[in-house]
Amino acid sequence: MISVEGLTKKYGSTIAVDSLSFTVKPGSVTGFLGPNGSGKSTTMRCMIGLDSVQSGTALFDGKSYRELKKPLHEVGTLLDAGNAHSGRTARNHLRWLAMSNAMSPKRVDEVLELVGLMDVAKKRVGQFSLGMKQRLGIAAVMLGDPKVVILDEPANGLDPEGIRWIREMLKHLASQGRSVLVSSHLLSEMALMADDLIVIGKGRLITECTVSDFIDQYAKKWVVVKSPQLTSLVSLAQEQGMHVSMGSDLAEFHGVEAAMIGELAAKNNVVLHELSIQTGSLEDAFLEVTADAVQYHGHADTQSKGVGS
Amino acid sequence: MIALIRSEWLKLRTVRSNITMTCFAVILPLAITLLTTAFIDVYSVDDATVSVVLLGSGSLSVLLFGIIGVLAITQEYSQGTIRLTLAANPRRIRAYVAKGIVLAILSGGLTAFIILVGNTAGEAILDSRGAVGKLSNGDMGQAYLALIAMSVLVSLLGMAIGTLTRNPPSAVTVLVLWPLLLESLIGSLLSVAISESIFKWMPFQTGLNSLRLEDYEMDFGRWGSVGYFGLWILAISLFALARFKRHDA
């Protein structure tokens, strides 16, 4: 269990993390979402004592990170896959970490096997692709078989097979009763792997809930209708003040219940071939909820002009 | 603590640049000593020849051990492993001390090895070339011990400077320019403003003075000189440690 309470981190006059509080339950994968610069990585660094905080605490089963005698046995963290000496071999990279927390050298080979890097154990990290470095970082996380796992963008650089592997692994770790906190920009992946979400913007907590509650609460819903008498149905709906957008063979009804459309069609003898409720994705919900917290915006038109000029 | 020391030792010996620098630090004084004793005019040899050459060339390795100290910590920052080091050992003082112990053992142990091999081989070469008379003297044992102490202290100084700058080139520059340029410059300026005797307070010069064979040439005596330099290293290390403890990784 991770309990973060009132965490505040400032860089000069800039507040990177602002009185942030949340909990990560054991037995679930908790997604940590926020736009670029929202303070996700800073929060993770503060949680394990790499960065000092102005106020607040982060406790792992009731203990602060600095109180842990052999922290790799309690908390496994992957903050940046690039945090490995390029001149050292993968095995030696894991060996020094294992030694620092009095682990057996056999454990190094076990985790290399687990992440599929056994064949390149004697290769220098500098020769690794980003995906291989991510796997090495995950091997380092798993060295101490920790109860808490914290990963910052673990899917970066992984191929589709690697992404699926990490998704299955994190779900498996959570099913073993571990607390898993993972940040990712791949929202479709997050929708598949996370049970709970913590969403932050500009260093502040926006919401903390389950993925389904988040989508229910923030994603748009609409009703899709297919009918051979679509034009008549749309006219009837518009007469009643409904907001409808018409496609070539279907119509989308916004802000109304599916039942209302069904009743309207039945009352007017309109045949329906499809009446379905559509819900926006996690990405839609995320963009909706963080719209005011995005610090860096891109503009497609400006970018294309810039490239061309 | 033993686990931490073993881990730091593994870190140090599994990076090629550290091994290269260590080889330089060992081979350089040995090569100079052996070549000098092989080619020197045997009629000019006295009881101090081997130790003078070994102590002179050994002071170069002292500086190289300092650079190894710089690399040991700045590599962690430049490669990002400092975050893993501190995540694995959140009690930062212990992490710093463990690295310092490894550096001290490495530099002290290798300097002892250089002295043993260099002195034995140098005397054997001179002996085989027909040099007459004593080839060793009473002061050289103490001077050799001072060389070991200086290697240890300068490696710790390198680590402290590296911790403060977090950047290999600037740390190496400070470490090399301090004895070669800064102390002479500052000493010259202060000697005009204050007194000629200010030079004896220059830490590196005083520390290196302890490597002279005759004790009477030193203002504070041999071990006083080492102790004075050691106090500077202690002060700089404590300052570096305070910053290391407080700063974001």
How would you describe this protein?
The complex is a heterodimer of chains A (309) and B (249). By secondary structure, chain A is α/β, with parallel strands linked by helices. Chain A has two domains: 2-210, Rossmann fold (3-Layer(aba) Sandwich); 221-279, 2-Layer Sandwich (Alpha-Beta Plaits), CATH 3.30.70. Chain A has twelve helices and 14 strands. Chain A has helices at residues 40-47, 71-74, 90-100, 105-115, 130-142, 160-175, 187-193, 211-218, 230-239, 258-267, 282-289, 300-308; strands spanning 2-11, 14-24, 28-33, 55-60, 63-64, 75-78, 148-152, 179-183, 196-201, 204-210, 221-226, 243-246, 251-254, 274-279. In chain A, the strands form three sheets. A six-stranded mixed beta sheet of chain A has the order 6-7-8-3-9-10, with helices on both faces. In chain A, strand 12 (243-246) and strand 13 (251-254) form a beta hairpin. The longest helix of chain A is centred in the middle third of the chain and has 16 residues, at 160-175. Chain B is an all-alpha fold. Chain B has helices at residues 2-13, 16-39, 49-79, 81-88, 92-128, 140-165, 168-193, 203-209, 222-246. Chain B has one domain (2-246). Chain B contains nine helices and no strands. In chain B, helix 2 packs antiparallel against helix 3 (49-79) and helix 8 crosses helix 9 (222-246). The chains are: A alpha/beta (309), B mainly alpha (249). The interface between A and B is medium-sized, with 31 and 28 residues.
- Calculate Rg of chain A over CA atoms: 24 Å
Intertermini distance of chain A? 53 Å
- The quaternary structure here is heterodimer
Number-wise, the strands of chain A total 14
Q: Poorly predicted ranges of chain A (pLDDT <50, ≥5 residues)?
A: 302-309
Q: Which structural category do the helix and sheet elements of chain B fall into?
A: mainly alpha
Portion in strands of chain A? 25-35%
Question: In CATH terms, what is the architecture of the largest domain in chain A?
Answer: 3-Layer(aba) Sandwich
In terms of structural class, how would the helical and strand content of chain A be classed? alpha/beta
The structural domain count of chain B equals: 1
Taking all Cα atoms into account, the compactness measure Rg of chain B is 19 Å
For the residues shown, what is the average pLDDT of chain A? 87
Number of strands of chain B: 0
